């Protein structure tokens, strides 16, 4: 099976830049041509076993990046699947790019996309039932959340059969505040999504009817997530950016504004950002926009273009949740043990045993999330207010920003003297009203502050 996948997706393409900390704005204008061939190593625990479900969308998204940019510049991807321990060590729980090569943990990527499949399935249920919001607008509502999706993904992977899967789901749901009917229905759709994804010759109409709505959402979100992850690492491997067209957040100056929140020290502790990381991040965003352009063009060519573009809207929203996982913790986090999400600390914010990482030379992870959310929001033309950082992803975002603030040397955060209101002015368009209220007035309620829309206390 791995050989078939290599044959189908071997025509790919990829990005490292020189590292420095004291760069100027002019440095960001530099793009140098790099390697003409990039080796992509997909690292797996055991190559003798079938590839993990979700593999097809990982590979197809990388293939789209290749055909939309790299192949046009004569850059080829050479793909391999390997269970060499050195590959897994290089990739860690995610991906790692260096000159001429990218190493990616395929098991972790596929697991991330399975979580994405759960959110797509869950969020599509209301739309399939014809439910609309009282105030109008899109009827997409994720009833599960990615932290529960992580638990359900693990259950599906360990279940003996479909009946065992359903029985275990119901057992877990009884311990959580989730509708069992919604979860079981979403689970059936996920099974169909992943089976369709695993069989390259299958027909979508042969599966659960819910897949017709959920799969385009899942596919779009997967394309955005994978292009963001790979776009960054390919920039390192190519030693430059293959995409010359600036992204919309570059031309609107939001990219620079968000960068400056780290460089200026206005909000966050000092963490010198290396030039190669700044350029790789910019290239990743260009790749996401290029992917979006290709998908929009394809949707516009279909008879039901208006419906297809709604699926893209849903996909943009889900992509923020998927990226939020890897940008604040890491791709391999075991969220099944995150039982303390609903327990607010002294400041009203939720507590969790998972710490947001700070890595020297890198952009603070919540800022990476903000950049992706900003880009996807600006690419959305029908319902920009729908494209936000919400729910548990918003919890991660807020806590991640607090970690960066606590990194300040002046001690204002620990002394309770830091003024959070400036965060509302900078990031308010990306979050719901509850987060803005928290930043401006200190009103935090773990149950309602992170919703996309206003909620009242019960």
Task: Provide an overview of this structure.
This protein is mainly α and about 450 residues long. The protein has one domain (about 1-110, about 215-440). Helix content is about 50%, strand content about 5%. The protein is built from 16 helices and 4 strands. A 4-stranded mixed beta sheet has the order 2-1-4-3. Helix 15 (about 420-425) packs antiparallel against helix 16. The model is unreliable at about 5-30, about 330-345 and about 350-355 (pLDDT under 50).
Strand content: 5-15%
Strand tally = 4
Give the N-terminus to C-terminus distance in angstroms: 52 Å
Give the CA-based shape: globular
Overall helicity: 40-55%
- Strand order, main sheet: write it out: 2-1-4-3
Query: How many structural domains are formed by the residues?
Result: 1
Main β-sheet description:
4 strands, mixed
- Helix and strand content put the structural class at mainly alpha
Task: Please state the average pLDDT score.
Answer: 78
- Total helices: the number is 16
Helix-strand pattern: HEHEHEEHHHHHHHHHHHHH
pLDDT under 50 segments (min length 5)?
A: 4-32, 331-344, 350-354
- What is Rg? 21 Å
Assembly form of the protein: single chain
Q: What distinguishing features does this structure have?
A:
single chain; 458 residues; mainly alpha; four-stranded mixed sheet; 16 helices; 4 strands; 52% helix; globular
Describe how the helices and strands are arranged.
Elements: H1 2-8, E1 37-43, H2 55-70, E2 76-82, H3 85-91, E3 95-98, E4 101-105, H4 106-128, H5 146-158, H6 162-173, H7 180-198, H8 211-238, H9 248-251, H10 254-263, H11 275-300, H12 305-328, H13 365-379, H14 391-406, H15 421-427, H16 433-441
Parallel strand pairs: 1-2, 1-4
Antiparallel strand pairs: 3-4
Helix pairs in contact: 2-8, 2-11, 4-5, 4-7, 4-8, 4-12, 6-7, 8-11, 8-12, 10-13, 11-12, 11-13, 12-13, 12-14, 13-14, 15-16
């Amino acid at each position: 099976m791995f050989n078939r996948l290599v044959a189908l997706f071997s025509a790919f393409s990829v990005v490292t830049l020189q590292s420095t900390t004291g760069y100027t704005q002019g440095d960001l204008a530099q793009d140098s041509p790099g390697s003409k061939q990039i080796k992509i190593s997909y690292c797996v625990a055991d190559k003798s076993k079938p590839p993990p479900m979700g593999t097809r969308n990982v590979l197809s998204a990388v293939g789209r990046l290749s055909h939309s940019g790299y192949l046009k510049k004569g850059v080829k991807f050479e793909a391999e699947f390997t269970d060499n321990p050195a590959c897994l060590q290089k990739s860690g729980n995610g991906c790692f790019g260096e000159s001429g090569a990218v190493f990616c943990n395929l098991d972790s990527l596929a697991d991330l996309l399975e979580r994405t499949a759960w959110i797509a399935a869950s969020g599509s249920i209301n739309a399939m039932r014809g439910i609309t919001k009282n105030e109008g607008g899109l009827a997409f509502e994720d009833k599960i959340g990615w932290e529960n999706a992580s638990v359900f993904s693990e259950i599906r992977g360990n279940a003996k059969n479909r009946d065992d899967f359903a029985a275990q789901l119901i057992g877990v749901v009884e311990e959580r505040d989730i509708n069992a009917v919604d979860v079981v229905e979403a689970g059936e759709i996920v099974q169909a999504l992943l089976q369709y994804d695993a069989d390259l010759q299958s027909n979508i109409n042969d599966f659960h009817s819910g897949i017709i709505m959920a799969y385009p959402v899942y596919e779009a979100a997967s394309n955005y997530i994978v292009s963001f992850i790979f776009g960054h690492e390919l920039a390192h491997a190519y030693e430059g950016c293959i995409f010359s067209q600036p992204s919309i957040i570059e031309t609107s100056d939001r990219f620079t504004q968000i960068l400056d929140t780290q460089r200026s020290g206005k909000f966050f502790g000092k963490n010198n950002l290396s030039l190669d990381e700044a350029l790789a991040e910019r290239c990743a965003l260009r790749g996401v926009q290029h992917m979006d352009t290709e998908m929009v063009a394809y949707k516009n060519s279909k008879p039901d273009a208006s419906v297809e573009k709604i699926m893209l809207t849903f996909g943009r929203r889900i992509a923020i949740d998927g990226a939020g996982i890897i940008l604040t913790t890491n791709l391999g986090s075991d969220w099944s043990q995150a039982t303390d999400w609903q327990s607010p600390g002294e400041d009203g914010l939720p507590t969790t045993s998972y710490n947001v990482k700070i890595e020297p030379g890198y952009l603070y992870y919540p800022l990476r999330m903000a950049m992706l959310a900003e880009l996807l929001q600006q690419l959305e033309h029908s319902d920009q207010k729908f494209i936000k950082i919400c729910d548990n992803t918003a919890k991660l975002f807020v806590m991640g920003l607090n970690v960066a603030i606590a990194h300040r040397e002046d001690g204002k955060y620990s002394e309770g003297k830091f003024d959070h209101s400036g965060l509302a002015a900078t990031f308010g368009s990306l979050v719901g009203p509850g987060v803005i209220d928290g930043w401006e007035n200190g009103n935090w309620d773990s149950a309602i502050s992170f919703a996309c829309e206003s909620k009242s206390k019960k």
